[in-house]
Structures are given as C-alpha cells and as structure tokens.
Design brief:
With 273 residues, the chain is α/β, with parallel strands linked by helices. 36% of the residues lie in helices and 32% in strands. Strand 3 and strand 4 form a beta hairpin.
Length: 273
C-alpha cells in the first residue's frame, strides 16, 4: 500500500507542533515526523530531538536527518511499522521536501500551511510566546523525551475537550521545552538535589561503603560530577566504579533530564567488614 504523505508547513514559532495533533486526528494519521523524531500517537519510535542540540545549525542538521546513523534508525523504524500515512512538519516547503526525500517517503499527497488551520490571532500568540519565553512544543508526553533531552522542561501542556455541560476530558499531553540553544535566563536544579540522587544511586551499588566527597560542576550543556568513595574490601574495583558511574548517570538523567557530561570516580579507602 502506498504511503500517504501529508506535510504541515509554517515558520518557526507559529504553533505547528501545537496544531499538528489536531491535524493528525482530523486526517486519521498515526505517524508524525517532527524535529528529528518519528512519533506514533504518543510514543517516540525513533530519532533524536533537534531541540537537544547546542546550536541552531546542529538543530537544523538533526531535523533534516543529515546524520547517517540518525537517518538509518528512523528509516528502519518506518520499514518495521509500514505506516499508511504520515505527517511531516517543517518550517518551509524546501525543508519538508528535503525530509521527505531523505527518508524516501515518496510523493507528497497534501500540503497544509499553518495559516490554513490556525487563525491570525493564534499565530501571533504563538510567535510572542516563542520570542518572549523561548517555549517549544513537542507533540509527545514529557516522559517519552525526558531521557533524550539535554535542555530542560517547562510544565507539560495538557489538551482537553468538552464532554457535555461543564465537563472536560484530557485527550493529549504535549511536552513544552526550552532547547539548549535558546536559553532565556538560567535554569537550575539545586546541587543538593543532585547530591541526594547520587547518594540514592550509590545505595543501589553493592560494594560501595560510603561516599566521602561530591563535587558538581554546572556547565552550560550539562554536569560534570566528581565522586570520592570508600569501597568494601574484596570487590573488583574497576567494574564496581563503572557500575557506580552508570548508575549515577542513569538516575540523574532519568529524574531531571539534565545532561551528564562525565562522572569521575576515585577510591579513597578500602574498608574491611
């Protein structure tokens, strides 16, 4: 069966991702390409968010699937899924054409422009929000992209519909994020919180006796963590340290969505128990 390709075109900050979910429902489209991600319903199937990149140039390259590995992963997922239809989002006709051609999706069946589905007032509000607050919308729940995002999250955006007099039913949740390359002001999670997560992670690693010292460097694109520990005598040191590094990285990235650049671990002492 031939894949039906629908594209949604609108300049940056006009509310494409916000409107995409409604367009997809109206056209009965279950798959979407947006900012480097292949999305099915509320789940990310493949890809890496362009909004995690450090520069606009890198974000554009990611959104256009110019990286071979990134492109291959998304194409493989499309091959497995064999969708009947897909919605591709882009800031221009040139961009959606490049994405469609790069992913070998075939001919474009329908072109929809943001002005066709949004009022002028809605577009003005979306542009103002983007300019003043740096907010972006990705049409998947927060937990789906948290593990793959190096910037930070604003409050999840919940979409409701009326179900009778005075009643509301939630139909979608979308993630409102501010990408790394468009920080407006600073976002900070207390180092105390990070320390608590490190202690929590260390408690899961059998063989770690005690954490002696923690130093946290807050870089613009993530954290560098130095940990000094006491280890129970008789445990293999290198595998134990590797396990601790992996556990600390996993817990912090999973709980905060912050990017961990490095976890450096040193052993101060061996303890016989």
């Amino acid at each position: 069966m031939k894949l039906k390709v629908t594209v949604l075109i609108g300049s940056s900050g006009t509310g494409k991702s916000y409107q995409a979910i409604y367009l997809a429902k109206d056209r009965n489209i279950r798959y979407m390409i947006d900012d480097g991600l292949l999305i099915k319903g509320n789940k990310v199937l493949a890809g890496f968010s362009a909004k995690r990149e450090k520069t606009k140039m890198a974000a554009v390259r990611r959104a256009l699937f110019m990286d071979r590995d990134h492109r291959s992963r998304v194409k493989a997922a499309l091959y497995r899924e064999k969708p009947e239809g897909i919605l591709v989002l882009g800031t221009s006709e040139k961009m959606v054409n490049l994405i469609v051609n790069t992913l070998e999706l075939g001919e474009i069946s329908e072109r929809v422009f943001i002005g066709d589905i949004s009022t002028e007032e809605e577009i003005i509000i979306a542009k103002k929000t983007r300019k003043n607050e740096g907010k972006h919308v990705i049409p998947v729940p927060t937990f789906e992209i948290k593990k793959d995002f190096s910037g930070y999250f604003l409050n999840p955006l919940k979409v409701f519909k009326k179900i009778g007099k005075g009643g509301l039913q939630q139909i979608e949740e979308k993630s409102v994020v501010r990408p790394t390359f468009s920080y407006l002001g600073k976002y900070k999670i207390s180092n105390r919180v990070i320390r608590d997560l490190i202690f929590y992670a260390a408690n899961k690693v059998i063989g770690i006796y005690k954490i002696e010292k923690i130093e946290i460097q807050n870089m613009q694109v993530g954290l560098i963590i130095d940990i000094e520990v006491k280890v129970v005598y008789g445990n293999p040191i290198i595998p134990l340290m590797e396990c601790l590094q992996e556990q600390v990285k996993y817990e912090i990235e999973e709980m905060t969505s912050l990017n961990i650049l490095a976890v450096d671990v040193s052993v101060s002492n061996l303890v016989i128990i």
